[in-house]
Specification:
Elements lengths: L2 H25 L5 H7 L2 H8 L14 H13 L17 H13 L15
Helix pairs in contact: 4-5
Bound molecules: zinc ion.
Length: about 120
């Protein structure tokens, strides 16, 4: 592979991703968590584990937001949306990213009160 081949394949990837994003806007309202979970088996694992994030912990505090940003979201990023490394016409879209984000974040247990991070303001 020479530099031109590489440039062509990057260009082709970007066009494919743009076109998929345009086409997918039409279908975004029909997108469901069940569809995402069927396309990416790791979602089921994350979704099942999320409500147990605070189970059996001996830490003084548990913060759902802190856990989301530091533990769960980093595991989601390679699976869905623009940071997914391979091209996927559904999982690569921002609609899929938004749905996965809301679903997984929503599955986390609430902060243990008082939460030093959420109550800081
Ligand atoms: Zn909190």
């Amino acid at each position: 592979m020479n530099a031109n081949d590489n440039a062509d394949s990057i260009f082709e990837y970007c066009c494919k991703a743009d076109e998929a994003e345009r086409q997918f806007e039409i279908f975004a309202p029909l997108l469901s968590w069940a569809m995402l979970a069927a396309l990416e088996p790791k979602f089921a694992e994350l979704f099942t584990a999320a409500p147990l994030a605070d189970a059996g912990r001996r830490d003084e505090y548990f913060c759902g937001q802190h856990y989301w940003h530091n533990k769960l979201k980093p595991q989601m990023l390679p699976l869905v949306g623009p940071s997914r490394p391979d091209f996927h016409p559904v999982l690569g879209t921002s609609a899929a990213y938004d749905l996965a984000y809301d679903t997984l974040q929503g599955a986390l247990p609430p902060c243990r009160q008082p939460c030093p991070w959420c109550d800081a303001e």
